[in-house]
From TrEMBL:
Record localization: Cell membrane
Cited PANTHER family: ATP-BINDING CASSETTE SUB-FAMILY B (PTHR24221), ATP-BINDING CASSETTE SUB-FAMILY B MEMBER 6 (PTHR24221:SF654)
Pfam families (alphabetical): ABC_tran (PF00005)
Keywords linked to the UniProt accession: ATP-binding, Membrane, Nucleotide-binding, Transmembrane, Transmembrane helix
Organism of provenance: Legionella pneumophila
Domain (ABC transporter) ranges: 368-600
Matches recorded under PROSITE patterns: ABC_TM1F, ABC_TRANSPORTER_1, ABC_TRANSPORTER_2
Residue ranges of domain ABC transmembrane type-1 in the record: 37-329
Protein name as it appears in the record: ABC transporter ATP-binding protein
Gene Ontology MF terms in the entry: ABC-type transporter activity; ATP binding; ATP hydrolysis activity; ATPase-coupled lipid transmembrane transporter activity
Record's bilayer topology term: Multi-pass membrane protein
Main location: membrane
Lineage: Bacteria, Pseudomonadati, Pseudomonadota, Gammaproteobacteria, Legionellales
Length: 600
C-alpha cells in the first residue's frame, strides 16, 4: 500500500491539491455547477432514449416488440395514446422537442455557472497571491526572487486558468459518461458490460504518460526564459554597446529548442492517445455490433441507440484522458504558485502595532530618536548600537561610504525592517496616532529612492500618485520648486505628456525631479531622499535644495548623499563613515549644532 501511494498518489498530488483548493474556494459554487451538469446529462440521456419511440413510429420497433431488451419500453409505450398501434407523430415530436429544449437550456445554465465559477476562481488566485505579496515583510522580499513571482503572476496564472478548464472538463465528462453508462445498462446490461470492459482496456493501454514530468521541465524552462528576457531588457543598452546581444540570442535559442522538443513530445503523446481511441474504438465497436446481432439478438432500434451511447462514452473517455494529461502537465506550476503564496503568507507583516516603533514624549525639537539600534542581515552585522536624533524642521544629512548601513538605517526608521536590538522612538506630539501601523506611514512620510520608479503614464498621473487631490496651481508651483516647470511646459502635451516605460523618454535628472515633486505634493511631515539628487546638474540641485530649505517650516528632511555639494545644504550631519563595527564598545552618534558628529 505504501508503495502504491508513493507511486500513484505522489504522482497526482499536485493535481489533487488543486482539486482541494477548487472545493475550498467555494464548495457551493463547485457542487452547484456540477449538479447542473448532472441535470443536463440526465436530460440528454432521456433525449437519447426518446430516439426509440421515434424509430417506433417508422415501424422499426414492431420488428422486435417482444424482445426482452425492450419489455420495459413496450409497457411504457402501451400507456401512451396510440393510433392504429403507433404513437402519433405529433406527440413524439412534441416530447422530443421539449426534451431537446430542456437539454439546451440546462446546458446553457450549466456552462454559464461553470464560466462564472472559473472566472471567480481565477480572480481569487490572482488577488490572493498579490495580497500575500504586498503584505510580505520587506526583509523577506529583499531575499526572495521576485522575478519568480513575476513569472507566476504573468504566465503562471494563465496556466492555472487552463488547469481549471481542464479539471472542470474532466469532472463534466465523468458525470456525462456515468449517465450514458446508466442508459446503456437500462437498454442492454450484457452489451454494456462488454463495451465497458473494452473501453477500460483501451484507457489502461494508453494511461502511461509522463505528463507531470514534462510539465515540471517546461516550468523550469519557461521560468528561465522569462528571467533571461527580463535581465536582457534591463541591460539591453549595455548589451548593444558591448555587442553582447548574440549571447542572449544563443541562450534564447537553446531554451527554445528544449521547450519545442518538450512540447512536441507531449503533443505527440496526446495525438497517439486520440488516434488509438479512434482506431481501436472503431475495431472494437465493429466486433460489438456483430456480437449484438449474431449472439445477443438485440433489436435494431436498441442497437442504434446503444452504439450512439458507446460512441459518446469512448469519445468522452478520450477527452478525459487528454484533459488529465494536460492537467498533470500544468499541475507543477500550480505547486510553484502554492509554495510562493504560502511563503508570502508565512512572512506576512504583522497587522498589529509595530512594537519597535513607539510614540513617546520627546523634546519638542526632536522628531525621531534612534536608540542603541543593532541590525544584521543573517551573519553580516550592518549596524551596532547606533544612536542619534532627527530634529524637527531641519535638513539632516547621512553620509558615509557605500555599505556602512545608511539606507538600512532609513529602512529601519520607515518600519520596513525590524532592528535586532534597540528602539526607534517617535515624538507623540508630531507623529500621527496611527503611525505605528505600517499601512499609515503614507500619511506622514515620503521617500524618494536612488532608483527612481515611474509609471508608463502621463506626467500628471505620475506626480499625483501619492496625492491625487491637488489642483493645477499647486502642481505647477511644486514643479517650479524642483526646477521642472520649464521642462514640462516645453513638452507637447504638458502635464499630459506620456513619459514611456519607467520614464524612458526622460533623462536621469528629469526623472529625479518628477520623483521629488511627487514626494513634496504628498505634504509629508518627514521627507527622505536616498541619493535622490545624484543625477542632477549642480544648478538644478541648488534650486531643489534651496526649495527644501524654504519648506523646512512644514517638514523635516533626511538626505542620504555622497556628494559634498549636497551635504553642504544640511543643517545637521550624521557621518556613518566614522562608525566601526569591529570596535568592542558601543558607538553613539550625537548630532551637534555645528553640523558635525561627535563619537562617544
Amino acid at each position: 500500500m505504501a508503495e502504491f501511494y508513493k507511486k500513484y498518489a505522489g504522482k497526482y498530488k499536485d493535481f489533487f491539491d488543486f482539486i482541494r483548493l477548487l472545493y475550498e474556494y467555494s464548495p457551493f459554487q463547485l457542487v452547484f455547477s456540477q449538479a447542473m451538469v448532472i441535470l443536463s446529462s440526465f436530460l440528454g440521456g432521456i433525449g437519447v432514449v426518446s430516439l426509440v419511440p421515434m424509430l417506433s413510429y417508422s415501424g422499426w420497433l414492431a420488428q422486435n416488440k417482444s424482445g426482452s431488451d425492450l419489455n420495459w419500453l413496450s409497457s411504457l409505450w402501451q400507456q401512451l395514446p396510440m393510433h392504429d398501434g403507433q404513437i402519433p407523430i405529433t406527440f413524439v415530436l412534441s416530447v422530443y422537442c421539449l426534451i431537446i429544449c430542456s437539454v439546451s437550456m440546462t446546458n446553457y445554465l450549466a456552462e454559464l455557472t461553470k464560466i462564472k465559477f472559473m472566472k471567480n476562481f481565477e480572480r481569487y488566485c490572482r488577488e490572493s497571491l498579490i495580497q500575500n505579496l504586498v503584505n510580505a515583510r520587506w526583509e523577506y522580499l529583499l531575499k526572495s526572487k521576485l522575478k519568480d513571482s513575476e513569472y507566476v503572476l504573468n504566465v503562471g496564472l494563465m496556466k492555472i486558468s487552463a488547469l481549471t478548464t481542464y479539471t472542470l472538463s474532466l469532472f463534466n465528462n465523468i458525470i456525462k459518461n456515468s449517465v450514458y453508462l446508466i442508459v446503456g445498462l437500462m437498454l442492454s446490461t450484457g452489451l454494456t458490460v462488454i463495451s465497458l470492459i473494452t473501453v477500460i482496456s483501451i484507457a489502461i493501454f494508453f494511461k502511461k504518460s509522463n505528463s507531470a514530468g514534462m510539465g515540471k521541465q517546461e516550468l523550469d524552462l519557461s521560468r528561465s526564459r522569462q528571467i533571461n528576457l527580463s535581465n536582457f531588457l534591463e541591460g539591453i543598452k549595455i548589451a548593444k554597446i558591448h555587442e553582447l546581444t548574440h549571447e542572449y540570442l544563443k541562450q534564447e535559442r537553446d531554451i527554445s529548442f528544449k521547450v519545442m522538443d518538450n512540447n512536441i513530445k507531449f503533443l505527440s503523446n496526446q495525438m497517439k492517445i486520440k488516434f488509438g481511441y479512434t482506431a481501436i474504438g472503431a475495431i472494437a465497436f465493429t466486433l460489438i455490433f456483430l456480437i449484438s446481432i449474431s449472439l445477443l439478438q438485440i433489436s435494431i432500434p436498441t442497437l442504434v441507440v446503444l452504439l450512439f451511447v458507446y460512441n459518446q462514452i469512448i469519445r468522452r473517455i478520450s477527452t478525459m484522458q487528454q484533459s488529465m494529461s494536460y492537467a498533470l502537465n500544468i499541475s507543477p506550476l500550480f505547486r510553484n504558485y502554492l509554495i510562493l503564496k504560502n511563503d508570502f503568507l508565512s512572512n506576512k507583516e504583522s497587522s498589529n502595532v509595530i512594537p519597535f516603533h513607539t510614540r513617546v514624549p520627546l523634546p519638542k525639537d526632536i522628531l525621531i530618536k534612534v536608540k542603541q539600534v543593532s541590525f544584521s542581515y543573517g551573519e553580516k552585522a550592518i549596524l551596532k548600537n547606533v544612536s542619534f536624533d532627527i530634529h524637527r524642521n531641519k535638513i539632516t544629512a547621512i553620509k558615509g561610504p557605500s555599505g556602512v548601513g545608511k539606507s538600512t538605517c532609513v529602512d529601519l526608521i520607515l518600519g520596513l525592517l525590524k532592528p535586532d536590538d534597540g528602539s526607534i522612538l517617535f515624538n507623540q506630539s508630531v507623529v500621527p496616532m496611527d503611525v505605528e501601523h505600517a499601512t499609515s506611514k503614507k500619511k506622514w512620510v515620503s521617500y524618494v529612492p536612488q532608483n527612481i520608479f515611474l509609471f508608463n503614464d502621463s506626467i500628471r498621473n505620475n506626480i499625483t500618485w501619492l496625492n491625487n487631490d491637488v489642483n493645477e496651481e499647486k502642481l505647477w508651483k511644486v514643479l517650479a520648486l524642483v526646477d521642472a516647470e520649464n521642462l514640462v511646459r516645453s513638452m507637447p502635451n504638458g502635464l499630459n505628456t506620456m513619459i514611456g516605460d519607467r520614464g524612458v523618454h526622460l533623462s536621469g535628472g528629469e526623472r529625479q525631479k518628477l520623483a521629488i515633486a511627487r514626494a513634496i505634493l504628498s505634504s509629508p511631515t518627514l521627507l527622505i531622499l536616498d541619493e535622490a539628487t545624484s543625477a542632477l546638474d549642480p544648478q538644478s540641485e541648488a534650486v531643489i535644495m534651496q526649495s527644501l530649505a524654504a519648506l523646512k517650516q512644514t517638514m523635516t528632511v533626511i538626505l542620504i548623499a555622497h556628494r559634498e555639494s549636497t551635504i553642504d545644504y544640511a543643517d545637521e550631519i550624521i557621518d556613518f563613515g566614522k562608525f566601526n563595527l569591529k570596535e568592542e564598545y558601543p558607538l553613539n552618534f550625537n548630532v551637534l549644532e555645528d553640523t558635525t558628529v561627535a563619537m562617544n
